[in-house]
## 1
Amino acid sequence: MENPGQFSLCIAQGVILTTHSLIFLILLYHICRINGLGQAHFQWDEAARRTLKRNLSWLIPTIVVVSFFLGAMKIVPELKFSDALAKLSLIMNSLAISIFTARTLRFSGGITSELIEKYPRSWLCRLRYIWYPLAIFLPQRDVHLDATGPLDIRVVSDERPGFPADKRSSAPDKEPQS
């Protein structure tokens, strides 16, 4: 990073990606306030509101740090450890979302516990042993690929220089034989 303008671009891109993540998370956090929109308008249960707010209080700083590194590494492909930091950021993001999902949707004390108690014969209750593991492990589906294979940052952002436009079409085309 010889050019100081490139460092500034890294910081700017990290801040931009961080704000994209923060918009939704801060809105959800303020919906969960005491006498906020969730409690006053949506009639959310107090335990569910507290569970969401408590878990958002640790998820927001985690996502902010991870998004900043991911955004900063998106702009500088020639930095020595940019792919490693981007992979680590994606892994940390997936783990944080999975832990958040597990803690908020758990059957006892989570936001679904009241629904399961009120409606034990509902489809939500009957299929909970299917949707709960899927909700937790779905963010983890790419962690193995991120950790072991080359990172294609286009999944998260725009196309990055140095990566083929389509992995299937990156092989040279064979000319048809006549």
## 2
Amino acid sequence: MARKRMIDPSLWTDEGFLELSDKAKLLYIGLISFADDEGRGRGSAKGLKANIFPSNDIKCDEIEKLKDEIETNLNVLFYEVKGKKYYTLHKWKEYQAINHPKPSCIPIPVTVRDSSRNDTVSIQDDSPQLINKLINKKKQSNESTGKNDDFVVLENEYFKLFKDKYGAEPDYKYSRDRGVLKKYLEKDGVDKLLEILRVWFAEDIGEWHGFSIPKLQNDYNKIIAAMGKKKNAKKRWGDF
């Protein structure tokens, strides 16, 4: 059973929280209430309905939409491992003071997608054969398109960085993730965005959510700050 949790007063004026519908706000507070001591919890729509909306006639399909709404606006990641749905709350320890925390029994949010089976599996439980199959499939797809535009350059770098870190490919959704990349491509240009991706991985800034592209928006300011520190460090060394 989850312990008592703190709701930080700043939540009520948080820009992301204010973007949520009333039901999504209630669901988000429920996620905090039912998270374990490491900020993770079970995220199936049926389970969330039973815990957070026990007397409401809300449908599971609507809860899935609320989850998308929350994930878009707040530091929450919903993910799957072996077909079971979970969630994790970023910056959990900054807002929750927990004495004698118990280890989580919920797996960490590092996943890859096997499109041939149309489900998501965890990297740590995945087989080397499946990982190699995913990598080769992506490589063949890139070669068949023959494209050399900025999106492909960024995607190839992202896949390379992810593979170097985890030994497998990420759960990359082209329509969704390209929308995020397009936003920053127009803002920063391809060269700076490549550097942003490299620092994102090198400094482990995206580790909390398994380097999910939509969460790049949450990590952006921290990445830029890390890039600034690196440049200042180089200048200091250059003065000697």
